[in-house]
Amino acid sequence: MVKRKEPQVAEKQFPDESSSSDEDTDMLDVEFEWFDPQPEHDFHGLKTLLRQLFDVDAQLFDLSALTDLVLAQPLLGSTVKVEGNETDPYAFLTILNLHEHRMPELTRLQDKPVIKTLTDYIAQQAMTNPSLSPIADLLKPFNQAQVGLILTERLINIPSEVVPPMYKMLLEEISWAIEEKEPYTFSHYLILSKTYREITSALDQEKSRPQKKKKMNAAKEEDKEIFYFHPEDEVCQRHATMYGGFSYLKEESDGQADAKRTFQELGIKPQGHMMLLEASKFESAVKALEHFLRPS
To answer: What is the 3-state secondary structure of the chain?
Structure first.
């Protein structure tokens, strides 16, 4: 059953290759539909989106187990589709209770090892950035904090206007779950996302250069401006207690960065990004998202 439907949320543009004008485009109106996660239809699509979210570090996780965990709570979270319920999702948003799955009893850790791996990964990455280091303490087994981990991703061409309805529905679903005595009374919301920097293409550096100069150029790359894959992250972090980026544990080759430099001279180097919001500020962040990304 469709949770929500919005015609003409955004328009996709496809360049007309037969025309020399950059302004000539083919326009396509798309009707987006929001659904609850469906185990019988969404496994492969959600797994692909999770792999995209974690980028090169996706290989560190059992993505099949993580996908199953997302699908095991079909009344929390949403998927976005364009051709009915039985098709692959183009976007998703879900929340996982890290406290519920990180309890120190051995049996629980055996039941949900992917959550332990994910929690350990987040704590490890948080410690690499002083702005994020308190997150590691919140995730310790005996800390009383109730942390809800928000995972959300969408295909590259899907417009950001699909995001606010997912967050709004999540607020409602959490409220309903709490009424049913489900373990979703959170003290904090942790949003795991990704950003990127533009870096000098390795293809443009193939001419011989002194090794010292190459190292200096690499250091300069770290100081470059950060860009957002998800425009909504800029809004969320205005309401965050803390936020910041971290480098992936698995190194990306220069060739991969060049492969992501589509239609531009510079390469793209992704990195992880976290935002921690107190529960009292989450609803106002969602309202700000709705205002910022409302369809024109």
So the answer is: CCCEEEEEEEEEEEECCCCCCCCCEEEEEEEEEEECCCHHHHHHHHHHHHHHHHHHHHHHCCHHHHHHHHHCCCCCCEEEECCCCCCCCCEEEEEEEHHHHCCCCHHHHHHCHHHHHHHHHHHHHHCCCCCCCHHHHHCCCCCCCCEEEEEEEECCCCCHHHHHHHHHHHHHHHHHHHHCCCCCCCCEEEEEEEEEEEECCHHHHCCCCCHHHHHHHHHHHCCCCEEECCCHHHHHHHCCCEEEEECCCCCCCHHHHHHCCCCCCCEEEEEEEEEEEEHHHHHHHHHHHHHHCCCC
In whole angstroms, what is the distance from residue 259 CA to residue 59 CA? 19
- Identify any residues that bridge with 147 across adjacent strands, giving them in sequence order: 188
Our measurement of the distance from residue 223's CA atom to the centroid of its chain's CA atoms, rounded to an integer in Å, reads: 23
Whether this model's pTM surpasses 0.90: no
Nearest alpha-carbon partner for 10 in 159, 230, 157, 156: 159
Q: What are the pLDDT digits (tens) for 103-161?
A: 555 444 445 889 999 999 999 999 999 999 999 999 998 899 999 999 999 998 899 99
Tell me the Cα Rg of the chain.
20
